Amino acid sequence: MFNIFDNLIMGFHVATSWENILFCFIGVLIGTLIGVLPGIGPTTGIAILIPVTFGMNATTAIITMAGVYYGAMYGGSTTSILINLPGESASVMTMLDGYQMAKKGRAGPALGMAALASFIAGTFAVIMLTLIAPPLASFAVSFGPPEYFALTFMGLTLVSALGGDNPLKAYISAVLGLLVACVGIDAISGVARFTYDNMNLLDGVGFIGMAIGLFAVSEILVNIEEPIKQVFSDAKLGFLSLFPNLQDWKDSFGALWRGSLLGFFIGTLPGSGATLCSFIAYGVEKKVSKHPEKFGTGVIEGVAAPEGANNAAAGGAMVPMLTLGIPSGGATAVMLGALMIHGLRPGPMLFSTNPEFVWGLIASMYIGNVFLVILNMPLIGIWVKLLKVPYKVLMPLILTIAATGIFATDNNIFDMWIMFFFGLVGYVMQKLGFPAAPMVLALVLGRLVEMSLRQSLTISHGSISIFFTRPISGVLMIIALVSLFFPLLRILWIRFRAARTA
Amino acid sequence: MKKAEMITGVVLLVLSGFAIQEAWRMPSSATFGPGAGFLPFWLGVLLAVLATILFVSAWRSQATEKDSEPVFPGKQALFAITSVLVGLAGYILLIEVLGYLVDTFLFIVFLMKTVEREKWPLTLMVAVSTTAVLFITFQFLLRIKLPSNIFGF
Known about the structure:
The complex is a heterodimer of chains A (502) and B (153).
Chain A: H1 2-15, H2 18-36, H3 42-52, H4 58-83, H5 92-103, H6 107-140, H7 145-162, H8 167-182, E1 184-185, E2 192-193, H9 207-225, H10 246-268, H11 273-288, H12 301-316, H13 318-323, H14 330-341, H15 350-353, H16 355-376, H17 380-386, H18 391-410, H19 413-432, H20 437-459, H21 466-469, H22 471-501
Antiparallel strand pairs in A: 1-2
Chain B: H1 2-24, H2 38-60, H3 65-68, H4 75-98, H5 100-115, H6 120-141
Helix pairs in contact in B: 1-2, 4-5, 5-6
């Protein structure tokens, strides 16, 4: 316990250096911006920031990127409430009651509650992260190759099973990502695979190019096809009108703590993501409410619960990323890829080998949450004005930042072609309903999956029973297999019930 | 969607066949355990299975009303998307010939004029300011040598 406290103080020493404070602020500022602007999500934002953060040290870089991630959760609520258009997918649920409140002239308290709920839940999540991450990491230190294979395998199946409405397509996306990860020199035997004498491919397919292509470029292509409608709000927002009254607080109290708890714990599961958490939190709130019929007509709990949940989830997502090296979704996968580029080896050892990095990041999240409340409460008027920036100005900007950034990381034109290729692939995938997150996750985890699989099979002389006879990996494998076959089981169950009633 | 999914299934099957064939030629086992070809081979097999499921379930599914809607966009949107892609390819091809400044400026002008059909004043304003901000940020603040043309800019 005292150890955690000491470490946290050390973290604050790292996080309060002028450089880290500045970039934490820049990160949450960009995050708010990305959250407010429809048509650019947090994953895209983080992906195009990787090259820009390249010259910084790893701690400053990840503080900036994490700031973008949880900052976007704050910003997304603004457009949901004011113009009934989610700034990013995690604030879809906020729209239901938030926009209704705005229509009734209560936009101020809705925005205020969204910001304060985000702050409370966000801070709660960081405290939980502080308490849970160290013991989990020290537990995971004993993991051998079979446990790692089981863990990464579980991460991939969960992301695919939970991350969309068509698990089959998600699995295909993950398998394709693993195949892409095979490109390059095999780390164990030194054989060049799928390289066709192309020098640029020996090191594997560039992660930054692929991530930016799949998220940023394909997002641009989709947005060009379906132009974003621009609606403006004429709500007048004085600073004092933003504060919810006592009755609002009474109504939201339950929603706040339930949303925070649900968001954090579901957020730690791989594949869940902030969007799913906000859906669940809203659903639960409606279930336990004394007046469920009023949901959707502008009740403040309907704003507090999903906004709290998506922010707590952003904190929860850091738990598997920092302690196990397993990202929980697209945004954390991109962050994890960035960590590796900065030369850090994500995993349980991170807490002992780079404590100043881990604790600096955690401490910066406390500071960032304070910045965000300040940015989102008094300055809300500025963000609303920003909505008037048309997408046609943004589109060339995003595309050129992305292209320049990719060139800048390696001074290599080939990486730009990778971006181009995966931009096209990402667009086609999106049109056909294949999610991109499992593919990026698979590329990030690919090396670890392959190494741990082959090392395990070497230990066991080729028998796959090694994954099931060791207790931890056995449990993880069972979770993975259940989630893998869950869609199938559900279909069988429905047929079975239909047959019985018929 | 039905037709598109069947085509996707076939394309993925071809891709998996290719992966299996390539993996077959890699050493499948090393001295102490599975070799370089092990994972790609089984991924190819897995992909083949998943692609078959996708194809068969799409083939057997009832065509719904949604299926008559085309998956890909109409002519106008298709033109816009193709322009962005062609523009981006041209941008990448020409960046070392024209230099960063000229190439980026022309790329933004191209995007604003052909894709967005914007008027000249706004086009020039966005192109000049974006190019300038990016050049200053990357070349001077991040100290990255951006490509230059034979005239040195």
